[in-house]
Amino acid sequence: MADLFSGLRDLDRTRRESDAELLRRILVHVRPYRGVVLLVAAVIVVSSVWETALPLLITHGIDHLHSTATSSSTLAGLVALILVGVLLAWLCNWVRQRQIGRLIGAVVLQLQRQTFAAVLRQDMSFFDRRPSGQIASYITADTQAFASVVTLGVNFLGQLVLVALVAVVLVCVHPSLAAVVLGISILLVAAALMFRNLGRTTTRHARRILATVNALVQESIRAIAIAKNFRQEERVYDRFRRVNTQLYDVSLRQGLVFASIHPMLNILTGLGLCLILYEGGRTVLSGETTAGQWFLAMQILGVLWLPLMEIASFWSQFQLGLAAAERVFDLLEQPPRVVQIGAVVPPRLAGHIEFKAIRFGYGGQSEVFRDFHLDIAGGEKVGLVGHTGSGKTSLTRLLARFYEFAEGEVLVDGHDIRSFDLAAYRRQIGLVPQHPTLFHGTILENIRYVRPGATESEVAAIASRIGSGRWLDAFPDGLATSVGESGWSLSMGQRQLVALARVLLLDPAIVILDEATASVDPLTEREIYESLKLVLEDRTAVVIAHRLSTVRELDRIVALRQGNIIEQGTHDELLARGGYYAELYETFYRHQETDYEALPVTGR
Amino acid sequence: MNGPYATSTRAARWIASHVWRHKGYVLAFIALAIAGNILLAIIPMLTGAAFDEILGPAPGQGRSQVLVLAILGAVLVRGGTSLLGAGAMEVFAQRLERDARDQFYSTLLRKNLAFHQRQRVGDLMARTTDDVRLLDPMMSPGMAHLFNAVACIVPSIVFAGRISLELLIAPCLFTCGLVAGTVHHVRRFHPIASEVRRQSGALNAEVVQTLSGIELTKWSGQEEQAARRLQRSAERCRDLVVAQADIQARYLPPLLLGLSLAVAVLHGSVLMGRGELSVGNFVAYIGLMTTLRGPTQLLLAAVIAIQEGLAGARRVLAVIDDPIDDEHATSGHRARILGELVFERLSFSYDGATVLNDISFRVAPGETVALVGPAGAGKTTLSRLINRTYDVGEGRILIDGVDVRAWAFDSLRTQIAVVEQDVLLFSDTVRANVGFGLEEEQQRRVEQATERAQAHQFVTALRDGYDTVIGERGVTLSGGQRQRLALARALAIDPAVLILDDATSALDSATEDQIQRAMIEVSRSRTTVLITHRLSQIRRADRIVLLIGGHIVDQGSHDELLRRCKPYRRIFGAPVRPTTSALVAGEGGA
Question: Core-most of A314, A370, B133, B265, by most CB within 10 Å?
Fold first, then answer.
């Protein structure tokens, strides 16, 4: 059940579809569960009827007992009715909670299944445009909000039915008291809406500040190590106290606002009751009203209170739910941009790559390639160098079919790569990224991820060829060592070795290597260098080269600037030419020479 | 840190001590709550009296108007007390949280450096700050609702008894049922609610992890495997949610309230029929029973919040009460360090594994020593033994001939500076950061140190120069810039011994030049223990110590080691081809 404080987030005003349209689509989506929904609705209506009936019964009892003689059978009947009603109400609630739990569980699970599939279908442009936290929230939070729209709607209808029933009954029983009660109800709803607004504004202000302050608290904790090194514990403690006080001030302000909302509403309700009491008493004195009816009017306000609060919180929560539903629908309907036109399973490729007249851009921004041509022979090792944004990464991504290009062709062994079965094609490409992903598991499992069918001995054989196998000596359990959450226990260099092992295991025709720029300890650097030569052997390689040692091993270097090839040749040739590549060398590779010495300051 | 949680008694006593500290607010709340709830119970009584007056034999407009005004007054006063009471409790709750955080922080300050090195890897700190945040809702609204519930039930029962002792049956039965029902329910609900939270956190983490590794998944065609894993997690969530809903559905107190109400109506009606109860009293009685609806709704949430808060308090106290790893300020030897380091047959173990074994070497004052070796060889550990981040197991370290353990912490730490791999700068001005180790009077050293660390140029290029705020709320700096500021910070205190753990890399040669120059400046005329990948720095070192597997394999200059040490050659072996820089020597390079 919604309470007064839920759904106070700011509404995103960028929705496209109308409420009605979205609601219709949600209902269509939930159609398979209509049985449960109807059951829940029915149960809620029954509860509402009972809630209206109980005060009526009591009223009847009062009037009856007050005016005529007691008939024990009538009394017994009355009480029996009340007992049955109470049991029925509790049972209805029992059914309602269980069924809603199942309904939400089922709807959310189905939506999550669909959103997983939709997300995994997408090409890399989808992931590059959005932080992974945002995508995760589509899958975990938005699906929940979607499901809650249904229950929200059903609950709301139930509350409306209740209020309508009560209004009808009251009007039938006593029109002028009814007017008073209904008037008060409207005022209460208006007050609740106003307080919700206040709550939302306060939350908005507090949230921004709290995020910063909390980060500062975390920083203060991390700062202790430094403080100890410099014997500045006092200073660090003073900083912390200032931040802590700030946190206290902001939280207190927010807390006080929220703590005062219920008491204020209670005051208003109490004032309403006084009004009913006065008006009812007056009309009883003048004979227009019975005692029972007077009592009824007072009880009714109590019955109405919670439903009124829920009605007040309904609209904004409903809007939030609709916004979430729209995001979910958008995600489910998002077409993947990388679409294959055929599904040919390629034979073992020789690795002859041709880029022909490629036009490509990241959508909205200026184009990366306008009319790009490049021919790579099978078995050739080509390096791509250039400043950021020159197109190096884009080229490799087009080759791996992570992105779709606008015009032109990419051919491998003369075949358009769009005609291949994507999974089969990708299995012939080995990818070594800048920041290799490791997941929770052993080193063995991490290597084997790319070919789950590989046996342990196969993986062990591969691992021992990397860096003469000695890199495994650093691990207490060798291949069976756990790498920890996201592989945190491995150094940068060791992660690269795992990535290289993966490629060796896959044994692809083409290798795409995006070198890391981080410095790595000299021994691992050596092992990486040796492993690289192994991995590049007998394969076509496209390398985004950041290491001088790699650059020197390549057959050809392609120097790019803003999507255009400026120079091509071997490292020695280009350096001797003294042109664009030589400039790049000065900026990026000079300091990697083994005899490098820092240049003295030139009085700039 | 992984010891047992503090006991509930300890947690309760700790909270009680905080209650005492802010007793003003707590007493105010209690007084206001009692007053408010008495008024809450009086209102039905007055209402009943109004009924009797109107329905009675001689209805007087005047008297009933007085009653209505009295009720109005009661409503307003009651509203006022509940408003103020809620406010008072909120203030107390926030102060409790603030003080708990403060106490926790002081505890952390007490711990020694080894503790902090370890904890950097775990997220114990993040979890504990989350636990502290459970304290506010525990009090407000948790404890507030609980107290209000009790304060509501008691007057209701008392007043009901005043009407007629017989009428106590229904409310008393209800109260017992409410308490028993709530306790029973919480015991079954709480574990599953925690499970639901844990599982949905796990699902979220899995989704995020899958997303951050999406390139790998797509490339290796493992989308199906990923989808199946996520699906299994989601199914587990669904099962738990359904089980939780089932337990929630079985919450009995609303049924008990309904039944008690029925009993109350029956009883009241019988008495009314017999003429022993006036209509007004009946109305009052039903009104009192209706006030019990409030506690029914609030009690469950209150108990859960209190339980969570207590659990959080126990976890926080486990850290606060733990005396392990406390650093004790010792007296000891104080002198100006010249910088001679002697390691004598040093051994060190951690978690049962031997990290360093029989290490012996000597560093003369002003020398630069480079510790070299594969990852995990013990280099960082060795360097941290010098400033007593860790204490040696066997053997000893002598600084200027005095055992490190005999030196006063103060003297040691102010003369030995450590520049960590993971540079931490504060959200504060550049000046404050670089001058962190300095007293007020010495602040002028800041600019000098920054200049020597090759950072002056980029600092003055920032918008506010030295007064620019960096970090969380300010400008973001590159890795190379941050390291140079850390070097400046170390330089500013002019230490006799510098431990430099260098792990940054420069993207371009110009930055690399600056970092190299900074490192040269920093190690000039002071004893420097250097851990670095940078070959040119290693070559420059006066001595290189090669550590493999916790042993010293060899030590000497770069050329000596190249000549005679096979493992060293393996790491730093000469390249196969002549260096390219020789080829471009004539091209006017930089």
Answer: B265
The predicted pLDDT at position B472 comes to: 65
Taking the Cβ of residue B524 and every Cβ of chain A, the question of whether any pair is shorter than 8 Å is answered with no
Res. A567 pLDDT band, cuts 50 70 90: very high
DSSP assignments along A116-141, one per residue? HHHHHHS-HHHHHHS-HHHHHHIIII
Q: For chain A, percent helix, then strand, then coil, each to nearest 5?
A: 65, 10, 25
CB contact under 8 A, B472 and A402: no
The lowest-confidence range among A382-396, A560-574, B366-380 is: B366-380
Mean residue pLDDT across chain B: 86
Residue A277 confidence (pLDDT) above 50: yes
Q: How many CB atoms lie within 10 A of CB B165?
A: 9
pLDDT of residue A329: 93
Give the mean pLDDT of A480-501: 84
Minimum CA–CA partner of A209 in chain B = B473
Q: Judge whether residue A61 has pLDDT over 60.
A: yes
pLDDT digits (tens, 9 = 90+) for B419-441: 988 888 888 899 999 999 888 77
Burial class of residue A397 in the structure, from the number of CB atoms within 10 Å of its CB (0-12 exposed, 13-18 middle, 19+ buried) = buried
* Partner residue opposite A270 with nearest CB, options B64, B75, B472: B75
**CB spacing of B86 vs A132 below 8 angstroms:** no
DSSP A331: H
What CA–CA distances, in Å, run from B52 to A293, B63, B138, B287? 15, 11, 43, 14
- The whole-angstrom separation of Cα A43 and Cα A34 is 14
Contacts of A98 (CB under 8 A, 6+ apart): B245, B246, B249
CB of B525 less than 8 A from some CB of A: no
Paired strand residues for A344:
A420
Which pair of tokens denotes residue A264?
């204020």
Q: What is the ipTM of this complex?
A: 0.85
CB contact under 8 A, B259 and A302: no
Which pLDDT tens digit goes with each residue over B283-294? Answer: 888 888 888 888
B522-533 pLDDT, tens digit per residue, is 888 899 999 988
pLDDT tens-digit readout, B37-66: 999 889 888 888 888 888 777 766 678 788
Compare B190 and B325 and report the one with higher pLDDT.
B190
Q: Which residues of A touch B409 (CB under 8 A)?
A: 231
Phi and psi at residue A437, to the nearest 5°: -85, 125
Q: How far apart are CA B337 and CA A134, in angstroms?
A: 54
Query: Cβ distance A531 to A497 under 8 Å?
Result: yes
Task: Calculate the average pLDDT of chain A.
Answer: 87
Q: Report, in this order, helix, strand and coil percent for chain B, each rounded to 5.
A: 65, 10, 25
A236: contact with B, CB 8 A cutoff? yes
Q: What 8-state DSSP symbol labels residue A479? A: G
Is A270 within 8 Å of B68 when comparing Cβ atoms? no
Quick one: which H or E segment has residue A298? helix A291-333
pTM for this prediction: 0.83
Block residue for tokens 């009085």 = A603
B576 part of contact set with chain A, CB < 8 Å: no
CA–CA dist B496, B408 (Å, integer): 15
Q: Do B570 and A523 touch (CB under 8 A)?
A: yes
Q: Please, which residues 447-466 of chain A have a Cβ atom closer than 8 Å to chain B? A: 449-452
Which residues from B are below 8 Å from A121, CB to CB? 223
Look at A270 and B227 and tell me if their CB atoms are within 8 Å.
no
d(CA A363, CA A474): 46
Report yes or no: A417 and A401 within 8 Å, Cβ to Cβ.
yes
Between CA A12 and CA A1 the distance in angstroms is 23
Closest CA to B287 of B79, B67, B70, B48: B48
